[in-house]
Amino acid sequence: MSRASVTPPTARTFVMTHQKQTNGYYCGPATASMIAKYKGKTYSQATLAGSSYLKTDANGATKWALKVMAPTLNKIVGTTEFQQIQSPTLASLKASFVNNIEGNYLPVAIDTYEYANSAHYNGHPKSKNIGHWIVGHGYSGSGSTLAFHDPAQGVWSGVTVPETFSYSASGFHQWVTTNGIVA
């Protein structure tokens, strides 16, 4: 018996409750908390920053190298779907958004890295090296454009960071090659 393949829609965006990170290094806990909330679970950023989850408090950041985001999301959401994808190719970035959002009905956690005095996204200050977690909550053009929630409101003085933004996948890809995505 053969099964006809189903083509995913060319666009889908989750409506999510945005959260601002509660301090300058809680972007990881804010990202995990937003994803949990989308799935009907409530976890505070402080809880998620603790030693049972993201270990953010102990390390002063949610470190990509510790590989804590995927197991934390799997635990708090009650799934096994989240996996850490190191330095995804552009094709993998786009496919991960479409597959996670459409196939698994799950947002994507993204650990970006912006180098000082080079391109930065969403109003982040260009004079700084910035490692930053954000939430991918949508795509259009079959993954050619990606939609995000950025928890960094108020982190940098004199800088306005919108809660949500969209970016072409090809342009955004540069910021996931140092770390990666959890999808």
Structure, explained:
- 26% of the residues lie in helices and 20% in strands.
- It has one domain (19-182): Cathepsin B, Chain A, CATH 3.90.70.
- The chain is globular.
- Helix 1 packs parallel to helix 4.
- With 183 residues, it is α+β, with helices and mostly antiparallel strands.
- Pfam families: Peptidase_C39_2.
- Residues 19-152 form the Peptidase C39-like domain.
- This is Peptidase C39-like domain-containing protein.
The proportion of residues in beta strands is: 15-25%
Q: What gyration radius follows from the Cα positions, in whole Å?
A: 16 Å
Identify the quaternary structure here: single chain
Give the N-terminus to C-terminus distance in angstroms: 31 Å
Q: Detail the poorly predicted runs.
A: none
Overall CATH architecture: Alpha-Beta Complex
Shape: globular
State the CATH class: Alpha Beta
* Helix fraction bin: 25-40%
Count of extended strands? 7
CATH superfamily: Cysteine proteinases
Kindly state the mean pLDDT as a whole number?
A: 96
What is the makeup of the main sheet?
7 strands, antiparallel
Structural class estimated from helices and strands: alpha+beta
Q: Tally the helices.
A: 6
**What is the total number of structural domains?**
1
